[in-house]
From TrEMBL:
Keywords for the protein's UniProt record, in alphabetical order: Acyltransferase, Transferase
Family: Belongs to the plant acyltransferase family.
Name of this protein: Uncharacterized protein
Domain of life: Eukaryota
Acyltransferase among keywords: yes
GO MF term (any one): acyltransferase activity
Amino acid sequence: MIESKITEMATMQPQIVSKETIKPSSPTPDHLRTHKLSLLDQLTPHIYLPMLLFYPSEGCDSPSQIADKSHRLKTSLSETLSRYYPFAGRLADRATIDCNDEGIEFYEAQINCQLSEILKKPEPETLDLFYPNGILYNDSYKASLVVFQITHFNCGGMAIAMCMLHKIADGAAVSSFLSDWATMARQSGEEVSPKFISASLSPPNDQPDMPDTKLECENCVTRRYVFDASKLAELKAMSVDSGVPNPTRVEVVTTLIFKCATAASTSNLVSSRPSVLLQPVNLRPRMSPPLPENSVGNFSWFFSIMAKDESDTDLPRLVGELKKGMAQFSEKYAKNLTANECYSLICEAIKEAKKVLNKNENINMFKCSSLCRYPFNQMNFGWGKPIWVGFSSSKVKNTFHLTDARGGGIEAWVTLGEQDMAVFERDEELLAFASLNPSAFYADCDFVV
């Protein structure tokens, strides 16, 4: 079975047909040649964020039409980079980007299969093949800050894979960049004006001495689970019946995965150990005045909830704790605080977290990042919206990534250690609400794939 899977993946390996460097369409002015990274940018690990958009054939994709699409993508990307000028630069040191217009790497590939062959069972390891080789989860890669690979299918469909250095953008900023690129490609005339404001946000004088954040890459397994809207409604009803008001779909999915992952991680232990869930929150709307929605960089921070043992993992209780944590976070960071005052609070939180971790070295840490409600499934470059938005496997243990699914559902990309995943994927409570890697086809799809 393993040999057949390896053979199948080899036949689906995209073949690179070209590599280019896309530079900004106009040079960056001298006064913008140095871009300062914010405190949050500097605290972010050197990791490339993945995003994978699949587009079906329009039904009559001739070689000239495919070439025209590629040309439109490259030309509009060059124009977009003139607005997102730091993205075309290089890291000068930990705190600055040299906006030298060196450009970004752009690969084009061909794959000898139909788009439908990928979408019928989109295994994370198969999706990894659509990304430029050697960049995902490789913290030694120090060149282009953004890398794209465009892959053409035999049917005329297309995949657009993006790797973006997390130090320059969080999920909201990635969404803004892709939206602006799509706007430029459509030549819609809409204004594209990202805000690079981190230089105006001075880190406090007493910021903690933080070493470079290193990735804890291990032998991990990533699984894709899909929660349909009807199952989300059942999960939300369970919390409401237990007295939790207005639980969101993200809250119920996050806590269910946390509960099941915690159980898996402690299944082989003689005694339980505490588990902590870190939940990132977008700070942009919570500052005073609110930062522009299109502020580029990292403007997210965390709050956490803890389960000391199995008795703390009752699902409605966890949902309630998550809602409480979010309310406290919002209150703490929404009291007419400026961005710099928020930074001071973040520095205090870092110091406190270091104290807690020093006292409790055996804590099991999990992190959930939600990209739900960001318009990745709306990225229209001139030939319609994506038929599906994918992700990748991961080498960072105990992480969950949530994305929107059709019809109000949620896709969860869960990464755990190999032993933990073997237990997690058999969890009956999880499987009562989630489907393991179902087809990415939908009944209302009438595209050529």
